[in-house]
Amino acid sequence: MKLCRELFLTFAKIGLFTFGGGYAMISVIENSCVEEKKWITHEEMMDITVIAESTPGPIAINCATFVGCRQAGIPGALAATLGIIFPSFVILYVISKFFEGFLEWKMVSSAFRGIKIAVGILILDAGIRMARKMQKKPLPCAILALSFAAMLAVNIFSLPITSVVLLVAAGAASLALSAGRGGRGK
């Protein structure tokens, strides 16, 4: 029960103090779960991130659920998941009660401008950390570079291609190249 409480409080803190959604939370989750609590390894965090991105649902919730399950089974998964969801639910509930005038407040609109910048930095930090820990083999590096170039082109030219399409294409390319090499994974 103590571990479930700790999972809930850890993920509630992440959910309360991290703005910008799942991608912005990845580096905070990694810091809390890998470096501070040592619940999982860096390699497991990378695997969790890839799986959480590939499965339905928000990435941060999927990460929390996995870490909770890993530490305390189903009760841990529930505690971690509720912990990361609860602060957002409460904040959105309160905002919805006062939404009419909420965004018109100068202080609130200024805060949101600052939060946008911080979210971008958190997402960039998560990407850089994952790239540093990535295997430095030619295939992963090539897929990383091509995926980055494709995503940049999609954003610059406003192409109607989603990140899911790019994710599936990268996975298919990796599988095809790996199968073509006889599964040696070079």
Task: Report the strand count.
Answer: 0
Assembly classification: single chain
What best-fitting shape do the alpha-carbon axes yield? globular
- Provide the residue-averaged pLDDT: 85
User: Biggest β-sheet, characterized?
Assistant: none
Distance between the termini: 45 Å
Give the helix/strand class. Answer: mainly alpha
Number of helices: 8
Q: What is the ordering of alpha helices and beta strands?
A: HHHHHHHH
Spell out the key features of this protein:
186 residues; mainly alpha
In short:
With 186 residues, this protein is mainly α. It has helices at 2-17, 22-36, 42-54, 59-97, 99-102, 106-133, 138-156, 163-180.
Describe it for me?
With 186 residues, this protein is mainly alpha-helical. 82% of the residues lie in helices and 0% in strands. The protein contains eight helices and no strands. It has helices at residues 2-17, 22-36, 42-54, 59-97, 99-102, 106-133, 138-156, 163-180. The longest helix has 39 residues, at 59-97. The relative contact order is 0.11.
Task: Spell out the blueprint of helices and strands.
Layout lengths: L1 H16 L4 H15 L5 H13 L4 H39 L1 H4 L3 H28 L4 H19 L6 H18 L6
Helix pairs in contact: 1-2, 1-4, 2-4, 2-6, 3-4, 7-8
